[in-house]
Amino acid sequence: QVQLVESGGGLVQAGGSLRLSCAASGIIFSINAMGWYRQAPGKQRELVAIITSSGSTNYADSVKGRFTISRGNAKNTVYLQMNSLKPEDTAVYYCNADRVFTPTKTMPAVWGQGSLVTVSS
Questions:
Q1: 37 vs 86: CA distance, rounded Å
Q2: How far apart are the C-alpha atoms of 94 and 9, rounded to whole Å?
Q3: Among 33, 12, 24, which Cα is nearest to 81's?
Q4: Neighbouring C-beta atoms of residue 52, cutoff 10 Å
Q5: pLDDT per residue over 68-99, tens digit each?
Q6: CA-CA distance, 92 to 63, in Å (whole number)?
Q7: Dihedrals phi, psi of 71, to nearest 5 degrees
Q8: What is the rounded CA–CA span in Å between residue 38 and residue 44?
Q9: Distance between CA atoms of 3 and 121, rounded to whole angstroms?
Q10: Cβ count within 10 A of residue 45
């Protein structure tokens, strides 16, 4: 049993900052990569940022220079620091863990419950 627990969502004014956290619980041997996706009403879920086990990062063009993804000292924890937030950043943000290896099975992907981020103008 592996779960991704998210926290840090909320309401913020345009130009403000917010930090999302995600922690994978359970007995885990390794996770290949962790990332954040978001889905706004009427839109498809899109990749926001990914960080691999080696520390490489990738960002959507829309958030480059404003968002920073990072891993904690415990590699099964990931953060998304969101600065200079814009109303168009409003969405439900989902944490994702890619290729989760556990004592009993390998999961291709595990998703968090979603965190609502609302940026007011």
A1: 16
A2: 11
A3: 12
A4: 15
A5: 999 987 778 999 999 999 999 999 999 999 99
A6: 15
A7: -110, 145
A8: 8
A9: 34
A10: 13
